[in-house]
Amino acid sequence: MDRRQVIVGAMSGVAALWASRARAAQQAGGVGRLTDKIVVTEAGGTNVVAFSTADGLVLVDSGAVKMWMARLYPTYRPNTCLISNGLATMAFSLPGAFAAKLVHPERKVLAAMGDGAFLMSAAEIETAVRERVPFVILVWVDGGYGLIGWKQDIHFGRQAAVSFGNPDFVQLAESFGARGYQIGAADELLPTLRKALDDVYEFLVSHPQEVIVMVIQDEGVTPQDVAAQFAASGLDALVYRGPAEPPWPTLREMAESDQRVVVMAENNSSGVPWYHQAFEVMQETPYTFHDTTQFSEAPNRGGTTGSLLLMNHWIETAPMPKPSNAAMVNAYDFLLRRARRFQRTRGHLPNFVAVDFYATGDLMRVVQTLNDVRR
Length: 375
Ligand SMILES: Cc1ncc(C[n+]2csc(CCOP(=O)(O)OP(=O)(O)O)c2C)c(N)n1
Known about the structure:
375 residues; alpha/beta; TIM Barrel; Rossmann fold; 2 domains; four-stranded parallel beta sheet; three-stranded parallel beta sheet; 10 strands; elongated; disordered N terminus; binds thiamine diphosphate
């Protein structure tokens, strides 16, 4: 099944807590009249703050959710928080998030909406799944038009015709081929959001030309554990299922067939057809170098038979690797020279270069140079 990023949070479990916090805020100075019907929330607001610092883009729907997001969600750059204001049309945030993700595929996009607004536009999840556009929908669930109920309370002292029943939102998301999560307490919100926003799957969906090779350091993890996690995350739909030996498909062929994740285990891959024994597939260099004079291109695990070549390229220090070493060995000239030496010794450029602190130094520039040479 084709699964996508959609988060559906049923918040009713913490409604009372949040409403009472909101009442405390009201007593402390003027947030308007609030009732227990109003779910959302200082707790939600502060949790979502973490998202705003991470260059995210949030679209906020009309409803009580807007009142709280507008008050509590800090923005640091223009146009990173889009709110349905003015005529305040409901249900804009879901298709709005879709459009925002198309325009900014590299950014994390979140639609924050009430259950009323969500149910007006939920069918667009099908479009998002079909078009492979991953974004996250956070639904505040209170089984009613909360903002309208709030206003009715203020004007009439009672509420009329603002309550409705809801489907099971997690099942609804799943039935579209999206992923659904239910959040039962405020402190679950941030970890769940992170999970939905940050995973490899999101990256692959939004970067359809990218291929990823994973080598899982699987001490204490069975192949069946790995397979279960791949199934739960949706990644199993994208794994490479061909033979892990020459002739390998080209990267373009892998992208076109959408088999873009090559998965290997350091130790045990038995019983899962797309999972391979890393050092039957790869050959590598040693990896325990304590200073730069010790770098060696000699065969290590995988001997000289593996069809993919791995160059290990970092300085070992206990208990943690050091960025200062990475700056030295990931520098352009040093790293390029080692790759050339590897090529002379092993008869081929490395297919993989393993480093510490990949963003320190010039790794990407070196790889670019090497790839140009190979073309
Ligand atoms: C298309 C549209 N219909 C009606 C309204 C009036 N309206 C504003 S907020 C709201 C209720 C929103 O309910 P919900 O999405 O569940 O959010 P909550 O207020 O419960 O957080 C309504 C009906 C509107 N703004 N836009």
